[in-house]
Design a protein that fits this description.
heterodimer, A: alpha/beta, Rossmann fold, six-stranded mixed β-sheet, 14% strand, globular, B: mainly alpha, ABC transporter involved in vitamin B12 uptake, BtuC, two-stranded antiparallel ribbon, two-stranded antiparallel sheet, 14 helices, 78% helix, 2% strand
Chain lengths: 247, 324
């Protein structure tokens, strides 16, 4: 997976940012508030249209693809503010994640054709597997809006995993979690990597970032400030200046 | 799995009651009201697919109902077309129209979508009124034939009752199936968070147009049934007021609940009979109902009844535990 990004907004939210992410790696994107991290995610996942610049997934130019197409290609994300389907059960949320893995149409669903019944059973089983993966199986029948915040984050990850992505973008997965939940999250992120999935996360929790990430991209005021291993970033003068102010 | 079995049982019970009701009714007046409840249920279910499942509002659904009625009416009175064939053509016409206008209209959200569908409804209403050569204009279209099936002619209330309710029950069952499926989940996902649904790979744009098309198709079938049972149609039945009435049925009954649509349709069809004493103030009563129900029963009457039922069951169980 190779990514080159280069974007200009009306109010320049991101300026000429390019970097690439190695397959099966964990990359962190950090930077002060307003650095353009979430904007970058929105562009990559097709929710925003960039003014300029290209995004590549492997060799494929996916610059102006719609989010639903990107999901089919194996690019999926979670949201900063947890975007669950609140009225649906935990299990059903994950089943929506399996949308691209099934294909029954309106007609076949309404008439409950045999193929649809069979597919439905497989989808249900797979959804349970992903709930087991994140440890939410006990809560399968709970309405998603009744989940505590930390479990909601886990559900978002389960739902994203159900898409069977090649790459998963997580927007501040640790925000609002307590230290025990964050530790669990770090374990889960590594478990996802072990499945051969590339992970990119935007995160403010430096402990988590330094712990799990193999490479880190630092954004500041819409520009790429640095890109390197956690150690390199920690010693980078420009990064320290951006975070703490120049001395 | 247990849930699924219970659902089948509930539907079977509901269907049985519906099919047995005529045996206990003497007069034809009530049967006639029940025929209209059937047609309105069909319409409410159709609108519920769009509004309750996918969360997309339509203030112009009476137009599809009218289109169905007029296409069937015109084809059978001015051309020698078989009424059943006309019904199918009418439904396909409405579906095609919905498909074509669906792409631009369903890009809009919230109030803008409401305005666009409102505008569509008004344009269609003007069409029904002004194309006098075809529709008969404000004085209406009469002499529409009844449907027949072999030796069976649907020209009395009893036969119409079974005709309308067989179709309505069928559509209700299909809608229930749909809600429990991949498509139903995707629609509800769009309703809850369109952005998240798209990121999960749900093609929201296409799916919204599809359900809008299906909804128009079913509404037009209801329109044809209305034309064949009334044998006379005029534009006033398909105006803005009726679109609002349909919306009220769906919301009062319960968004996303198929049985709720039946309840809403039944109440709003019978209510005018009881509200005669209020004359023109009946619209005030509708408004009041809508306000009270959205305030105190946000999940509609069905949701409210369910909650009430649970409380009663809880009380009984609690009482039994205390006595033991």
């Amino acid at each position: 997976m190779e990514g080159i990004t280069q974007i200009f907004g009306g109010l320049t939210a991101l300026e000429d940012v390019s970097f690439s992410v190695a397959p099966r790696s964990i990359t962190g994107i950090i930077g002060p508030n307003g650095a353009g991290k979430t904007t970058l995610f929105n562009i990559v996942t097709g929710l925003y249209t960039q003014t300029r610049g290209k995004v590549f997934l492997a060799e494929k130019n996916i610059s102006f693809f719609e989010p639903e197409v990107l999901a089919g290609l194996g690019l999926v994300r979670t949201f900063q503010n947890v975007e669950l389907f609140g009225q649906m059960s935990v299990l059903e949320n994950v089943m929506v994640g399996l949308h691209t893995k099934s294909k029954s149409g309106i007609f076949s669903c309404a008439f409950k054709l045999p193929a649809q019944i069979k597919e439905e059973k497989i989808v249900r089983e797979k959804a349970y597997q992903w709930l087991d993966f994140t440890g939410l199986a006990d809560l399968a029948d709970v309405a998603a809006c009744n989940l505590p915040f930390g479990k909601g984050r886990l559900l978002e990850i389960s739902r994203a995993m159900a898409v069977e992505p090649q790459i998963i973008l997580m927007d501040e997965p640790a925000a609002g979690l307590n230290s025990r939940e964050t530790a669990g999250l770090a374990g889960l992120i590594r478990k996802i990597q072990n499945l051969g999935i590339t992970i990119v996360l935007v995160e403010h929790d430096m402990e988590l970032v330094m712990d799990v990430c193999e490479s880190i991209v630092v954004l500041n005021l819409g520009k790429k400030l640095a890109h390197g291993t956690p150690r390199e970033i920690q010693e980078n003068k420009a990064v320290i200046a951006a975070y703490l102010g120049e001395d | 799995m247990i849930k699924e079995k219970r659902q089948i049982l509930i539907f079977a019970l509901f269907a049985l009651i519906i099919l047995l009701v005529p045996l206990f009714l003497k007069g034809s007046y009530f049967l006639n009201v029940l025929v209209f409840i059937g047609i309105n249920t069909l319409l409410a279910v159709a609108l519920n697919l769009l509004l309750g499942y996918a969360g997309q509002i339509s203030l112009g659904h009476a137009a599809f109902f009218g289109l169905g009625a007029y296409v069937s009416g015109i084809l059978t009175t001015r051309f020698p077309v078989d009424p059943w064939l006309a019904l199918v053509i009418a439904a396909l016409c409405a579906a095609t129209l919905a498909f074509v206008i669906g792409f631009p209209i369903l890009k809009l959200k919230g109030h803008y979508l409401a305005m666009a569908t409102l505008g569509f409804g008004i344009i269609m209403y003007i069409f029904f009124n002004e194309t006098v050569d075809w529709t008969g204009g404000p004085s209406g279209l009469s002499g529409i034939p009844n449907l027949r099936l072999g030796p069976l002619i649907f020209d009395n209330d009893r036969n119409n009752y079974y005709l309308v309710w067989m179709i309505t029950l069928g559509v209700m069952l299909l809608s229930i199936n749909l809600s429990q499926s991949r498509i139903g989940r995707a629609l509800r996902a769009i309703n809850d968070s369109e952005v998240a649904a798209r990121v999960m790979g749900v093609n929201a744009r296409i799916l919204k147009v599809q359900i809008f098309t299906v909804s128009a198709f079913v509404s037009a079938i209801a329109g044809s049934l209305y034309a064949y049972t009334m044998t006379f149609i005029s534009p006033t039945s398909f105006g803005f007021n009726f679109s609002v009435e349909l919306l009220t049925m769906v919301i009062i009954g319960g968004l996303g609940s198929i049985y709720g649509s039946f309840l809403g349709a039944a109440i709003l069809t019978m209510l005018p009979e009881f509200l005669r004493v209020f004359r023109d103030f009946d619209i005030v009563i509708y408004g009041l109902m809508l306000i009270l129900i959205t305030m105190f029963m946000p999940t509609g009457l069905i949701g409210g009844l369910e909650a009430l039922f649970k409380i009663i069951i809880g009380k009984i169980k609690g009482g039994a535990a205390r006595n033991a």
